[in-house]
Amino acid sequence: MSDEQRVTLGDGREVIMRHSRQGDAERVHAYICALGRSTDMILTYEDDLPPIERIQSHIDMIPKGQFYSLVAIDPESGDVVGNASFRFAVRKKLMHAAELGMGVLPSHQRVGLGSMMLNRAIEDMKSHPTIERLDLTVIASNTHAREMYLRAGFVEEGVKIRSLKQPDGTYDDEVVMGMWICELGR
Ligand SMILES: CC(C)(COP(=O)(O)OP(=O)(O)OC[C@H]1O[C@@H](n2cnc3c(N)ncnc32)[C@H](O)[C@@H]1OP(=O)(O)O)[C@@H](O)C(=O)NCCC(=O)NCCS
Questions:
Q1: How many Å apart are CA 79 and CA 126, to the nearest integer?
Q2: What domains sit in the chain, N to C, each tagged with a CATH number?
Q3: Cα–Cα 20 to 30 A to 125, which of 71, 96, 141, 177?
């Protein structure tokens, strides 16, 4: 069964949403570099772009159940324009939790793609055999991202004070958010 889903965005454009697979490393890498250059709301930035090998290693972890990645692809260019990923812990006491990272390129922001990807990724986690809790951190001033997460069902659990230092020397607080996705005692 194909996991590809063709979705129409708020402005009428279409994207293909599917799980990442072998052969995607280059386009996911290009997306992460473009996103890192476009915003100071994520850890990645211009002078600190990840090597493609790191992206490939994440893709290699998917069939082993150690990583989850959903991509949105522009059907015209074949480029990745959005991504939602979950990192699974390797330490036993943390194995019930998965950590979310996500982004949408500026060309495709504010037309519903982020919310759609987030909702599909959460639904996928609900059918995961061991994941019970979802985690994320978001820069406190990233108001629309925080609201998107709240709407999806995350709750704000705390604040890490000046946990990020931007390249210009200014500090940001991060909000820790979490969501419980199964009955207690599963
Ligand atoms: C946060 C992000 C993933 C949201 O993706 P998106 O595709 O723009 O999200 P949506 O179109 O589904 O919009 C979600 C909500 O945020 C609002 N929104 C999105 N971008 C906005 C902006 N720049 N300013 C104001 N509101 C904005 C939308 O209007 C929408 O609200 P609504 O449902 O009330 O209309 C995307 O903006 C992004 O990648 N930003 C840079 C990286 C980042 O912040 N990642 C998250 C790190 S935790």
A1: 28
A2: 5-134 (3.40.630.30)
A3: 141
